[in-house]
Design brief:
- The structure is a homodimer.
- Helix content of chain A is about 60%, strand content about 10%.
- Chain A is mainly alpha-helical.
- Chain A has 2 domains: about 70 residues, Winged helix-like DNA-binding domain superfamily/Winged helix DNA-binding domain (Arc Repressor Mutant, subunit A, Orthogonal Bundle), CATH 1.10.10; about 35 residues.
- Chain A starts with a helix and ends in a 10-residue tail after the last helix.
- The relative contact order of chain A is 0.13.
- The C terminus of chain A is likely disordered.
- At the A-B interface, helix 1, helix 2, strand 1, helix 3 and strand 3 of A face helix 1, helix 2, strand 1, helix 3 and strand 3 of B.
- Chain A binds a DNA duplex (30 and 30 nucleotides) through helix 3 and helix 4.
- Chains A, B: It comes from Asanoa hainanensis.
DNA sequence: CGGAAGCGTAACACGTCGGTTACGCGTCAG
DNA sequence: CTGACGCGTAACCGACGTGTTACGCTTCCG
């Protein structure tokens, strides 16, 4: 998943994925759409391949790339969990608890310091 | 969105977002959870802030960070579009078309190797 | 065959990223 | 007021990513 997020985090690679959404394309067709050199595009394709976001198939002297959506959905699943609150419907009560916890920790480690009662 | 994807593409930052899912935390509390130095965490928080993924609020000498889910949903929206087929329900028939077109282009050999005219 | 087309890799330059230590500035406590 | 605490920033450095050009391998066509 690290690789998937990293792959999507690049503008060129996102553009490639968008192109591939409309159907498979050869490496040359993809490269033609960018101002950068073909080797650069080739390496972008390599990143996408290693992230599992595209599949490649040799066809004569062409190499055809196709979009693979499975890793995308996996990433979407992770993101969806973020938007789902876990054990925190009590508004900001948890903040108070956390601050208190840290204070206790620090006290045991550093010494006398009963300070920030301010909480929130 | 570039920034959002880039922010999520880092392991430490993803962990921070997960921590924040359970409620706001101070910078110190976040930093305590990692083996890296606090300045390093501070910069991760800066990246998250500039991506709009967290909100920060000064509270005394503490700084409280909270998760902001809006950009996440935006990224999810972009990813969802990838999984949606656009004008291509004919399985891999398009592949054949693309390869054929490319071959023809080369055969004409007039020079211009523009390919992307068929999708558009 | 032999040469051109298609594509990937190798080697290299360079900006960016993520880490560290040193420091500054505001805030709370005594 | 003074000193400790919390946190961010500055300066620096090694690693990685992205771009380039040069090259090699495979495939097609005349």
């Amino acid at each position: 998943m690290d690789e998937v997020a990293g792959a999507v985090a690049d503008r060129v690679r996102r553009e490639i994925l968008l192109m591939l959404r409309d159907g498979p394309l050869t490496a040359g067709q993809i490269a033609d759409r960018f101002a950068i050199s073909r080797p650069a595009v080739s390496r972008h394709l390599r990143v996408l391949r290693e992230a599992g976001l595209v599949s490649d198939a040799a066809d004569g002297r062409h190499r055809v790339y196709a979009l693979v959506t499975a890793p995308i959905e996996e990433l979407m699943g992770w993101l969806a969990e973020l938007t789902r609150p876990s054990a925190w419907q009590h508004r900001f009560d948890a903040l108070e608890t956390e601050v208190y916890r840290t204070r206790r920790e620090r006290r045991t480690a550093a010494g006398p310091d009963r300070s920030e009662e301010k909480t929130a």
